[in-house]
Every structure is written in structure tokens, then in C-alpha cells.
């Protein structure tokens, strides 16, 4: 018998559709209630067109959706560039200054994580952890563009002259000073005492002072005072002097055991350093040696104070005075990891014998690993960039370390005490949030340590390349790294069956790309010259130049939509191809590709 409909058929279909919708909408919520899983929200604030707004940030673990609502319950668009600041329940604890065994993984021009290396498993892998935030993780060494190490140093004395009560000093403003904006003019005698000198009577030591050379001559005297095991008082002095024609610096010590080397003068800030090892004393201006002796000052003796003086008419400025002691050496790295991949700290002369087969990690400045293909994992969940309080402050100095920082892919030293990482949000409760990292593992951060959360408008992430590359044909100090690698870069990676079906975007961080509207190359770029094309598996996704509007003097993130069926199961390849000028094919744009990744956007 044919069933009798008590509603018209189109109404029946509508009822079925409505029932299906209610089923899909309510069942997950009911399941969440039964299983104890619930959405959690944090009170937050954000800047919206110059006005600070307040509301709540909520993460739904079932739908894997991140939502932002204002105080009047309106949904806020999680667009690109939105920086969300959690309201903190308790003030953040101050960063602990200089844990001695920390390493910083440089994961991109913005991303860095501070942790402890437990062991270097091989020349290709490292076991490390981020105390309080992660379990031990084994990462390929090359998944980071660099592993930077804090020197194993105890600070005996540090003075940045920001205080206004320093006797005999004239406080002035000086742009670009290594430690703060306020420096002093060294025209009277100054004395600084070590608080507890008994702690600094052995081991390698480094005395460092920033000096500003204006090219007007002058001299600067330093006197180190110390004591032995009894009441014996000792002192050592040096004087930094300019030649009569102001073309060179030299140093006078009054100690005939020193070999002296005058150095050419150069205007600007410089580091004057005295390094004391077990078998030598070396005086340097920046990285260059002014004087060296095969005897150690203050051997088995404490340094109790330091005196600084200059002529009354001296124009020399000083800043950032420090006395540091290097601790007992441990944790060696086998050499060669690869000889050219290890850079040593500024105090590398403390190593003594440069032919050591093992190098203590505490004296290593950085390990620059070779890039390795296909290292990133797909992680699923709202992609965010999280900035949070790290384990300790850093001793990177903007002026002296800028070239080094460029080599490892950073334009400037990371902010003191801050770490930054990109990942997929997988869990959030009242106290913490957890990110899954494409590099491997997860990191959990306490709400009171979170500084900013930046949604990146993606539902998944796969890292393809974290190492910076210089595309082009000329040495260029504005590009990272400065040495060119040519006009072609290929990045290979693999995808699984399901991964190849994701609706994705190719994300590229770039620096110094010629903008399409920047004179005098507008016409050349319109003709397809001096451009950098982006290809994926033989499909042209566009050019870097077309997405750059200005001069690209600071890094920009470009996103290229990928049509379906372009990515495939198994091997895939991203390729950057450069084109020169018609009349000079070898003349290329010099630029940095500073990171490449895939975002899932479906």
C-alpha cells in the first residue's frame, strides 16, 4: 500500500533537512557534555583600529574552531594581523636572568624557542626540552635554521648607567648605545665595586665595556683591583689611546709581556674586552686583538673593583660595563659536527687550543645545521603565532651581534625574555593552552605567561623550510644570508593520500623583493623581467613581486592559493625561479626567502 503523507512532500523534505541539521549541531555538543569535553574561554583584549576592545577568546575542541566575541556578544573577525592579549590573573614572574645551559632554536625570522638540550643524539638529531612547557622532544638538527647558545656566564657586575646617581658622571642621550638610551661621558674617575668578589676568583673571566668613538681622539684608562687568598692587594691597568693623527687605536699596559697590535679607528660604538683565561690575557676591540700576553691576570685571585678615568676634555662615551665569569665547562659537542657549522662565542679565546676534538656547548655561539628536506609534520587545528615569556633573558647585543644574527636569519635580537612559536591549537583550559608543532611534539604555556595570540587564518600547518635563502647573483648585506645562492631554489616534500587533498595555501616569508610598483623597475617587472616566479609541481602560482606593494625592507608573509589537484600523493616540489633582464639575463633581483610552509584552509 502506498503510504499516505500527512504533509506535502516538499514539507517532508524540509523537515528531514531540519532534523539532519539539528542532529549535526546538537549531537557533538551532547557528546561533549557526556565526555566532559567543553569549550573554554579566556578574557582578552585587542586593538581594533586604534581602540582597545575587550571580550572573550573561545576554543571549541570538537569543531576545532577559535572564536572571538566582544563584550556585547558580537563575533569578531579573526583576520590576519589581529593581536590578542590575554588578561592575566596574576602578574608574570620576572624572567630569570641567564640560565647557563639554555639553547635557543631559531625556527624562522620571528620564531624562536628557548630550552635545554639534553643530548646531541648524532650529527643530525638533538634531544631537547622546554622546561615547564614540553616533554623531551627529539628534533632533527636541521629543523631549526640555527641553535644559538647562551654563554655559560655568571654576572659579577653589570652597569648600564641608566641610574641618575652615578657620582662624577655626566648623563647624556645617545642613539644606538648597546644598553639603553642613557650613557655617560667619561671625563672623571668612576669606581665600581663587585658585590661579592669571593665568588669570582677562578675560571675564565671577561671584562667588557662599550666605548663610543667620535673620531675626536682622547684616551680611556681602566684599572682592575683584586685580592689574593690573604690580604694581598693586586691591580692591573690598561689605557686605550689614540695615535697623534687619530687614525689608530692602541693599548698601553705597562706590562712588557704583552704583544701589541694597533688597530684602525672607526667611528661608532665598539666593545673593549679583557678576557682572562688560565694561560693568557687578551685585550680586544670588538673581535680584533689589541694586545695579548701568555700570562693570566688575577690567576686564583678575585677581582674586587674596576676604575674608569679619562682626560677632562675627553669626548669618549661609555656604556654597558660588565664583568663575567665563565663557569665550569661541561656538555661537549664532538668535533667535527661539521667544522664550518659551529660558531664560537665572542670569548672564543677562552678555549685556548683551537684544535680541540670536543667543544663545550657552553662556549658555542651557534650551531648552523645543514637544511634537510621534508622535516615538518602536518598538525591540525587553528594556526596561531604565540608570543610568551621564556626561561631567561638573552645577552645578544644589537650593535656587535647584528652580522651574526643575520647569518642565522634574524634582523634584530629577539626581545628580552620573549619566545615566539607558530603551531596548531589543540587544547585550551582555564589555565593553559597547548600547541602542536610541525617540528614535532607539543608545547603548553600557562595563561599568565602568554603575551599575544595571533590567529593566522588557517586550520592546519606543515613546515617545509625554516632556513633562510638568498636568491640572486650579488653579495648583499641587506639580504639574509648575504652570500647569493643563484636564481633557483627547490624544496622537496612528501604528502600522504589525504594530505594531498587538503585545500591549501603556500606561505612564503620574504625580504628585499622588488615591488611591482617600485621605480625604476616598474616597466621591467611588467615585461616579466627581474621577477621571482613560484611553482608547485610544474604549476605557476604567481610571482613574489606581484604581492609586494612597498620596498619590502622588513619581512613580509605572502600567501599563494593552491588549486585542487596540484598537490599529489608522494613527492612534491616547490620551486622559485628568477628571471633576469632581457639584455642581461644574469642580472637578478637579490632577495631572501626566509621560510616556506603549507597552510590548510578548508
Provide structural commentary.
Among the domains are: 153-326, Jelly Rolls (Sandwich); 468-600, Jelly Rolls (Sandwich), CATH 2.60.120. The protein is 7% helix and 43% strand. Strands 11, 12, 13, 15, 19, 21, 22, 23 and 25 form a 9-stranded antiparallel beta sheet that branches. It has a 7-stranded antiparallel beta sheet with strand order 9-8-7-6-10-29-27, with no helix packed on it. It has a 6-stranded antiparallel beta sheet with strand order 14-24-16-17-18-20, with no helix packed on it. Residues 1-18, 21-35, 91-100, 328-358, 393-402 and 404-415 have low confidence and may be disordered. The chain is mainly beta and 602 residues long.
In DSSP terms (H or I, runs of 4 or more residues), the helix count works out at 3
Main sheet characteristics: 9 strands, antiparallel
What distance separates the N and C termini? Answer: 46 Å
Globally, the shape reads globular
* Rg: 29 Å
Task: Give the DSSP E fraction (strand runs of 2 or more residues).
Answer: 35-45%
Number of strand segments:
44
Q: How much helix, percentage-wise, in residues?
A: under 10%
User: CATH class of the domain at 153-326, please?
Assistant: Mainly Beta
Q: From the coordinates shown, what is the CATH architecture of the domain at 153-326?
A: Sandwich
Residue-averaged pLDDT? 78
Structural class: mainly beta
Fold-level CATH name of the domain at 153-326? Jelly Rolls
Poorly predicted residue ranges: 1-18, 21-35, 91-100, 328-358, 393-402, 404-415
Amino acid at each position: 500500500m502506498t503510504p499516505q503523507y500527512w504533509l506535502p512532500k516538499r514539507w517532508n523534505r524540509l523537515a528531514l533537512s531540519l532534523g539532519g541539521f539539528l542532529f549535526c549541531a546538537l549531537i557533538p555538543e551532547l557528546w561533549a557534555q557526556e565526555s566532559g569535553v567543553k569549550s573554554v574561554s579566556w578574557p582578552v583584549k585587542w586593538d581594533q583600529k586604534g581602540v582597545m576592545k575587550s571580550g572573550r577568546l573561545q576554543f571549541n575542541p570538537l569543531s576545532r574552531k577559535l572564536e572571538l566575541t566582544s563584550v556585547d556578544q558580537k563575533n569578531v573577525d579573526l583576520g590576519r594581523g589581529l593581536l590578542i592579549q590575554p588578561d592575566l590573573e596574576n602578574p608574570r614572574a620576572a624572567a630569570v636572568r641567564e640560565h647557563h645551559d639554555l639553547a635557543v632554536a631559531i625556527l624562522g625570522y620571528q620564531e624562536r624557542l628557548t630550552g635545554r638540550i639534553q643530548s646531541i643524539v648524532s650529527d643530525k638529531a638533538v634531544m631537547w626540552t622546554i622546561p615547564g612547557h614540553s616533554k623531551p622532544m627529539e628534533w632533527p638538527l636541521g629543523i631549526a635554521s640555527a641553535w644559538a647558545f647562551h654563554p655559560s656566564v655568571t654576572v659579577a657586575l653589570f652597569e648600564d648607567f641608566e641610574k641618575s646617581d652615578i657620582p662624577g658622571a655626566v648623563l647624556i642621550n645617545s642613539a644606538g648605545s648597546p644598553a639603553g638610551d642613557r650613557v655617560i661621558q667619561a671625563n672623571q674617575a668612576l669606581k665600581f665595586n663587585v658585590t661579592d668578589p669571593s665568588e669570582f676568583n677562578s675560571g675564565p673571566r671577561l671584562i667588557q665595556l662599550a666605548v663610543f668613538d667620535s673620531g675626536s681622539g682622547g684616551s680611556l684608562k681602566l684599572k682592575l683591583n683584586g685580592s689574593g687568598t690573604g690580604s694581598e692587594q693586586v691591580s692591573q691597568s690598561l689605557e686605550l689611546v689614540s695615535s697623534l693623527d687619530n687614525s689608530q687605536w692602541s693599548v698601553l699596559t705597562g706590562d712588557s709581556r704583552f704583544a701589541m697590535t694597533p688597530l684602525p679607528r672607526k667611528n661608532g660604538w665598539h666593545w673593549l674586552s679583557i678576557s682572562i683565561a688560565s694561560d693568557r690575557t687578551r685585550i680586544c676591540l670588538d673581535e680584533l686583538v689589541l694586545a695579548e700576553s701568555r700570562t693570566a691576570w688575577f690567576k686564583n685571585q678575585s677581582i674586587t673593583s674596576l676604575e674608569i678615568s679619562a682626560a677632562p676634555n675627553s669626548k669618549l662615551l661609555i656604556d654597558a660595563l660588565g664583568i663575567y665569569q665563565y663557569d665550569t665547562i661541561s656538555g661537549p659537542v664532538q668535533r667535527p659536527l661539521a667544522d664550518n657549522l659551529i660558531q664560537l662565542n665572542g670569548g672564543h679565546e677562552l678555549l685556548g687550543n683551537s684544535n680541540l676534538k670536543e667543544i663545550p656547548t657552553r662556549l658555542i655561539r651557534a650551531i648552523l645545521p645543514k637544511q634537510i628536506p621534508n622535516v615538518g609534520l602536518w598538525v591540525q587545528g587553528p594556526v596561531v603565532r604565540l608570543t610568551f615569556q621564556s626561561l631567561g633573558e638573552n645577552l645578544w647585543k644589537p650593535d656587535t651581534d647584528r652580522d651574526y644574527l643575520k647569518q642565522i636569519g634574524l634582523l634584530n635580537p629577539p626581545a628580552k625574555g620573549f619566545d615566539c612559536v607558530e603551531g596548531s591549537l589543540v587544547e585550551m583550559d582555564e589555565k593553559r593552552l597547548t600547541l602542536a608543532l610541525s617540528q614535532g611534539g607539543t608545547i603548553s604555556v600557562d595563561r599568565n605567561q602568554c603575551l599575544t595570540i595571533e590567529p593566522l587564518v588557517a586550520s592546519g600547518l606543515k613546515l617545509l623550510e625554516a632556513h633562510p635563502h638568498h636568491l640572486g647573483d650579488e653579495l648583499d648585506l641587506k639580504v639574509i644570508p648575504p652570500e647569493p645562492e643563484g636564481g633557483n631554489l627547490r624544496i622537496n616534500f612528501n604528502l600522504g593520500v589525504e594530505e594531498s587533498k587538503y585545500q591549501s595555501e603556500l606561505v612564503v616569508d620574504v625580504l628585499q623583493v622588488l615591488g611591482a610598483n617600485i621605480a625604476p623597475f616598474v616597466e621591467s617587472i611588467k615585461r616579466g623581467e627581474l621577477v621571482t616566479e613560484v611553482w608547485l609541481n610544474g604549476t605557476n602560482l604567481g610571482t613574489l613581486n606581484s604581492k609586494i606593494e612597498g620596498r619590502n625592507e622588513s619581512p613580509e608573509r605572502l600567501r599563494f592559493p593552491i588549486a585542487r589537484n596540484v598537490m599529489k600523493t608522494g613527492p612534491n616540489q616547490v620551486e622559485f625561479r628568477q628571471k633576469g633582464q632581457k639584455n642581461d639575463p644574469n642580472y637578478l633581483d637579490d632577495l631572501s626567502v626566509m621560510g616556506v610552509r603549507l597552510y590548510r584552509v578548508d
